[in-house]
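Submission sheet (multi-component)
Chains listed below:
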Amino acid sequence: MEAVRRIAGRALPLARADVDTDQIIPSHWLKRLERTGYAEGLFEAWRRDPAFVLNDDRYRGAVILLAGANFGCGSSREHAVWALLESGFRAVIAPSFADIFRNNALKNGLVPVELDETTTGRLVALVRADPATEIAVDIERRIVEAPGVRPSFEIDDFARTRLLEGLDDIALTLRYEVDVAAYERKRPEWLPRVIAP
Amino acid sequence: MGSALSEKIWERHVVRRAAGEPDLLYVDLHLVHEVTSPQAFEGLRLARRPVRRPELTLATMDHNVPTNDEPPEPISAKQIEAMARNAREFGIRCFPMGSPEQGIVHVISPQLGLTQPGMTIVCGDSHTSTHGALGALAWGIGTSEIEHVLATQTIAQTKPGTMAVIVDGALPADCAAKDVILAIIARIGTSGGVGKVIEYRGSTIRALAMEGRLTISNMSIEAGARAGIVGPDNITFAWLEGRPYAPKGQHWEKALDDWRSLATDPDARFDREVKIDARRLRPYVTWGTNPAQSVTIEDRVPEPDALPADARDSARRALAYQDLRPGTPVRDIAVDAVFIGSCSNARLDDLRAAADVLQGRHVKPGIRALAVPGSMRVKADAERMGLDRVFIDAGFEWRDAGCSMCLGMNPDILRPGERCASTSNRNFEGRQGPGGRTHLVSPAVAAATAIAGHFALPSDLR
Ligand code: SF4
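Outcome: structure written.
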């Protein structure tokens, strides 16, 4: 994962609540074997509507997605995060996120920023009034910066450090091999083991 | 203060705990399917890492397998082949298409007795919450986490909160487990469980057979919960005893003692409690495009302006997508298709409930009706009971096991504009195929609807 400290640029006002991962990337895109090639599938169904905000040229090049509450609910598909990243988004600002989506986002360096409804609403109003408005997400200082709004957001130290340093989770855990092996010796003997193929 | 069941299981699985970091938990069972795993195996290959504990890993193929005699579409075939190849290369047991043990991942593991109380179970699939019905702590993960679990048999997670949903009273005769969970989601909303494990408690839950508990736990994720769980009891133990992977002999006795000790302590406190009176439930039908947008079958499609302010926008969008007019009685809504299947409702009990309604009747002409058993074992059991004949004689297609029309990833999809009564768990826009319209219902209501041609209860049929 690449390290990420600060994200700044235009923001796309999606502003819908309960956006599920089936909308972010429909399931027929999940037949691919790769981690790439999903940009075209992003919001595929909604994009057919010319009035959908993603088709609005004024927001082209947006790096921040302004979403509604419970963003990323439903299916666990990490493809949703891959599709957003490939389409240029580096952060999603929303009043709340579904748990699995948040985990998936953090694993890939897409920053989930939780801001209350009022603050998210103000950001949406700003970029609707002027699509060229620049919004910045500063992970180091845990603040969002926009003209006239400067809210702080919460992100736990561990997640923040991982983003700032771009750490590989697996390499990190493999350092605790001794703890894992010690745990394994204490597991109850009745626990099931799948018969070898 | 005592602990809740989910907290006890969590504490038992902590491998490493450090201030300011998520806990590192041991994973007792990792379930894998063809759709969310290829990139994880590729990651292992690139880093030259092995699977740490192949014997705690089980793979199957369910999402994009065809459930009739047609060959898979070429692109699905590639994914199916990749699953088989990855399983071979990394030494993982896999039940491929054509195997008598193949089926939807969340149906086969409980059926084999692999899912047991007190275990931690993960799978790259949000409906992993299903396994909580047996008292396991089970949740869905993404592809990066799959790779992590394959490589380390552990997962780093922040500790979830606790929530109790207490359902008491006798369920009305025409209500099923599906109606209980739809009622719960209608009450707490699609994000009512975010960050929490929901423990389903109360006399209604205690009285439910394992199949019904699996249906309820399955849809915990539709309320946003990290997981759902039911305290193990005699129904759990009776379900498990004698299954292929259940403990045997002395191990069985030891396991029983241990499982009994898992129950939530009487003085445990939950972060949130919700009470539901089962006696007042009616069969539910969703009208919208998220599982909380539902009414009972006696009701009408709601008027968005009559809903709470924050629900109006999405209700309007949902009604437009679903092509429904406010005020329409639910029973007047006609359907084009009926799907009885999915990890929510495709176990033997579910098929039996539907077959009871279909017996001696015929699907309304023009309706496409599919019955898709959750596993090949469920299919074989159903056929032994003659249920296949009931479905076929009634005009249903009787299929092999798989996810089928639960999601638009295999040949079973709705055409744009088609309306479907479905026993699955998600009514998102396009979930059953682009432009398709989904209404979630119980198996008995799905069957009655197939006969009547519009939403109906079994008791509506003459
Ligand atoms: S049946 Fe549906 S919900 Fe269940 S695992 Fe398959 S696609 Fe997911």
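Remark: The longest helix of chain B spans residues 74-90.
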